[in-house]
Write a structure and sequence with these properties.
The protein has 217 residues and is mostly beta strands. It has 2 domains: 45 residues, no CATH class; 145 residues, Immunoglobulin-like (Sandwich). It is built from 1 helix and 14 strands. The strands form 3 sheets. It has a 6-stranded antiparallel β-sheet with strand order 4-7-8-12-11-10, with no helix packed on it. A 5-stranded mixed β-sheet has the order 9-5-6-14-13, with no helix packed on it. A hairpin with a 6-residue loop joins strand 11 and strand 12. It is globular and about 40 Å long.
């Protein structure tokens, strides 16, 4: 039986899978080749067709392996404490970050996570600072308000403008009557629309409240 030349081509597809196509051709015309040595293998030709997956695909992949985009936009409140005790906390910072399908707002505390309320303000409603009632300018079509009850912060009001896909600006107030107010200006894609939220708290040595806001559709 005549031996043949083999040409192997690796094909890389966007899904990450690989396939090997094996093409066999006649070996006639190879001078001096013995029957046992007529088969020769050429170096494999690597052709890449990897393309960036669209945002919807990236979110679906993230949802299958970790946290996808949140979808529930309803107001949230802190769960009842198992021991009935409510932490009196000090707010130590506010951070933001971007993920595949959502932006994350993290509020850091010392002394535990206090009671909280998270809600979307009504369409067209603007955030007003506790105590003074002054309008707090925030970028984005809608405003997310977080009220921290039984919390202190003895620093001046702080604003940031991270300009992430969803979280466009933030406001962190000083405490007023043991209450701290947080405002988040959110890009939702339309003033009539609100985004999905995921809210959870983390205890331990570095307690914090985490709020995930879905990217605009």
């Amino acid at each position: 039986m005549d031996a043949g030349r083999f040409r192997a081509v690796w094909r890389v597809v966007a899904s990450g899978g690989c396939s090997l196509a094996l093409v066999v051709g006649g070996a006639a015309g190879l001078p001096g080749a013995t029957p046992a040595a007529q088969a020769q293998t050429r170096p494999a030709a690597l052709t890449s067709t990897v393309q960036a997956a669209p945002a919807a695909v990236r979110c679906a992949q993230a949802g299958s392996t970790g946290l996808g985009a949140p979808t529930d936009s309803s107001p949230r409140t802190s769960p009842p404490r198992s021991d009935g005790a409510v932490a009196h906390a000090t707010v130590t910072g506010l951070r933001t970050g971007r993920h595949a399908c959502f932006d994350r707002v993290v509020i850091d505390f010392a002394g535990g996570v206090p009671e909280y309320r998270v809600r979307w303000l009504a369409r067209g409603e603007r955030l007003r600072a506790d105590g003074s009632g002054r309008v707090v300018p925030l970028q984005g079509e809608r405003v997310l308000e977080v009220v921290l009850l039984g919390a202190d912060r003895f620093e001046a009001a702080r604003r940031t403008a991270p300009r992430l896909p969803a979280v466009r600006s933030t406001y962190l107030s000083p405490s007023f009557e043991a209450t701290v107010q947080v405002g988040v200006g959110v890009r939702t894609g339309a003033a009539s629309r609100v985004s999905g939220l995921r809210v959870f708290e983390i205890g331990g040595a570095h307690p914090r409240l985490v709020i995930d806001v879905a990217h605009p559709r």
